[in-house]
Amino acid sequence: MTSTGDAATDADRVRQRFLLELGTDVVVVDDDVAESYRYDRAGTVRPGRPLAVLRPRNTAEVQSALRVASELGVPVVTRGAGTGLSGGAAAVDGGVTLSTERLRHLEVDTAASVAVVGPGLLNVEVKRAAAAHGLWYPPDPSSFEICSIGGNLATNAGGLCCVKYGVTTDYVLGLEVVLADGRVLHLGGRTVKDVAGYDLKRLFVGSEGTLGVITEATLRLRPPPPPATTVVATFTDVVAAGHAVAAVSTSVRPSALELMDGAAVAAVQRVRPMGFDADVGALLLAQCDAGGDESSVVSAACAAAGASYVAASTDEEEAELLMGARRMAIPCVERLGTVLIEDVGVPLPAIPDLLAAVAGIARRRRTAIPVIGHAGDGNFHPLVTYDPTDPAATSRAEAAFDEVMEAALALGGTVTGEHGVGSLKAHHLRSQLGAEVMEVTRAVKGALDPAGILNPHKWV
C-alpha cells in the first residue's frame, strides 16, 4: 500500500521529470495557478487535481510532453479555452493538463482559400483574420468570442449557421496530430478533394482529446454570405413553434433557424429587454440569405403553425440584436440557478415531440427546463435549472437530465449534437451506441493510445 508520503514523493518525481524535459516556462506546478485549469464550464462536473499544467509553445514541446507522459504512465487531459459544457476538459487526479493556449500560429492563404491555424486561437480570431482577406470562416458556436479552435475541433462544434453551412468538420482540410507516444501525423492538406486512404482527420475531429493532441489545422474558408433577411415569429405554445420548424425544413434551408421557449425569452429579457410580451410561449428566429421568396416561405410556415406575430427585416443592427439575445440565453438562464446543459438532437419531424416531452418532464419533475436550440438541424439545449443547496431539487434535476436524454433516444436522436460527451454523458453514450459500437470504439482507442493516458476516465 502506498503511503501519503510515498504518493507525495512520486508526484514530486513526476513534476521534476516534466520540468527537466520542458523547463519552467512550460511546466506550471503552482497550485494556485493550476486551479484555474481544472474546470470547464460544466460546473456540475467535479474535476481532479493535476500534478502540473503544461503550456507548450510548439509541436516539438507537445511531443516531448507526451513522450514523458507515456514513459511514466501519467494521464494527459488536453484543454483549450475551458468553455466546454460537458466536462471533457476536466482535470484528473494524478495527471497533467496540457493547455493549447500558446499554440497560436496563423496563416491565411487567400489563393487556396484556407487558414492554417494553431488550436489556441479563438474562433473569433480566425473569423477576423479571414474577414481581413475578404473571406469567411462559417462555424459559429454561440461562444465564438471566447472558445478556441482546438476545443471546436475536439468536440466538432456546431453553431447557429450550421443548419445551412455545416459544422466544424466540414471545414477541416488537414490536421497535424501528436499521438500518445509522441509521433506526429500529418493528415490531409490544402486540397479541397482528397480520398487517399482512410479519412483519419475526421476520426480526430470530435474525439475530445482521447486519441491525440491536435497542434495545427488547415481550415477551409469561403466567400462571405450575401445579406440576410431576418424573420422573427412568436408563439403562445412552444410545440406550435416546433411544428413551424418542421414545416420550414421541408421547403427551404435558412442560414439560421433558432428557437427559444418562453422561459428562455424571459431570462434574456431580464438582462436585455427585447420588447416581447410576457406571455410569449416561444420565439423563432430565422435568417434567410438565399434571396427570392425564402423569407416569405418561412413567414408563411410560421403563420400557418399559429404564430401570434411574424415580421421580417433586412436591418442588420436589428438582426444582430436578436441573434445576440439568442447567444446570451445560456448565461442569462445561469443567473437563475445551477444549470445542467443538455445537448440533444432529434430528426426534424420529431422536433414537436421532443419539445412536448421536455415540457412533460419539467412538470413531472417540478424542475425548470428552459429550452433553446438550433431548431433548423434538430439540436436543442434544454437547460435543467435548479437550486444546488436543495438536495431534493438536485435529485429531481438529475433525474430530469437523464430523462431528457432518454426521450431524445426514444425519438431516434442523439445525446449530443455539438457539445461532446465528456464526463456528463458517458453512461448515455453507451445506451445510444450499443455494445458492438463501443467495442469498436475501444479498439480504435487502444490502437492509438494503448496505455490509455489520453483524457482517461471520460467516455471511452
Protein model, in words:
There is one protein chain. The protein is an alpha+beta fold and 460 residues long. The protein folds into four domains: 10-99, Uridine Diphospho-n-acetylenolpyruvylglucosamine Reductase, domain 2; 106-220, Uridine Diphospho-n-acetylenolpyruvylglucosamine Reductase, domain 3; 226-326, Alpha-Beta Plaits (2-Layer Sandwich); 336-454, Alpha-Beta Plaits (2-Layer Sandwich). The protein has 15 helices and 17 strands. Strands 10, 11, 12, 13, 14, 15, 16 and 17 form an eight-stranded antiparallel β-sheet that branches. A five-stranded antiparallel β-sheet has the order 5-6-9-7-8. Helix 1 runs antiparallel to helix 3, helix 8 packs antiparallel against helix 10 (294-304) and helix 13 runs antiparallel to helix 14 (391-410). The two termini are 28 Å apart. The model has no long low-confidence stretch (mean pLDDT 95).
List the helices and strands and how they pair.
Layout: H1 4-22, E1 27-28, H2 31-35, E2 52-54, H3 59-72, E3 76-79, E4 96-99, E5 106-109, E6 114-117, H4 123-132, H5 149-155, H6 162-165, E7 172-178, E8 184-188, H7 200-204, E9 213-220, E10 229-235, H8 238-249, E11 256-261, H9 262-271, E12 282-288, H10 294-304, E13 309-313, H11 316-327, H12 329-334, E14 338-341, E15 344-345, H13 351-365, E16 371-374, E17 379-386, H14 391-410, H15 426-448
Parallel strand pairs: 2-4, 3-4
Antiparallel strand pairs: 1-2, 5-6, 6-9, 7-8, 7-9, 10-12, 10-13, 11-12, 11-16, 14-17, 15-17, 16-17
